[in-house]
Amino acid sequence: MKKALIFRGGWDGHEPKLVSERFARLLEKNGIRAEIFEGTDCLADRDALMEYDLIVPCLTGGTLPRECEKNVADAVSRGVGLAGCHGGMCDAFRNSTEWQFITGGQWVSHPGGDGVEYTVNICRGANPITEGIEDFTVCSEQYYLHVDPAIEVLATTRFPLQTYYHAANKPIDMPVVWTKYWGLGRVFYNSLGHHDDVFDRSPAAERLMERGMLWAAGGKEYAEANGLSRAKYENNAKMY
Fold this sequence. Notes:
- The chain has eight helices and eleven strands.
- By secondary structure, it is of the alpha/beta class.
């Protein structure tokens, strides 16, 4: 049976307890055993991390010890997946540029605050995560992020919608959902999820999250089945 490590904490406003338990239920429903831990101590044992198929962060803000950062980077590079939502993943560990490199982005603002109604536009094309999901409306915070140009964008939202200083710039499509790779590891991010009930009010957001976690959890299995090696990515491994 596949295993997932979920760690939670940080700012309570993002409801890490409710969100982590929701994700655990989704994983268990799909035959993946989920283990929930408080804080980052669970990341201190590199060999233990290698036993998992997926890591799910649900921790806003906080500080990631350098050794834990190295352990996550190494585990994901060897095929352990990484998947998360909103502040629990890309508004975590703001001082860790390596974490931002792995995850593919960083939250910077939510113009208009909470209660903004906006459309999430699904990018067209063959992808098992978005298959059959149509554009949908969300009433929550609309997130402005700084993103890695290497990400594979699966959904976007249009900015500006609310008047703010950034409105002086041209309109842009901001990534909402994306995937990327870190060595052999699959990385998935969904910026929705300010509160747990966002997933109840917008079921498509939960469906994307469920599919994204399952996709990320398949990286190690795929690498092993296809004889893939991390060696081709290791030239700069000394940086870890």
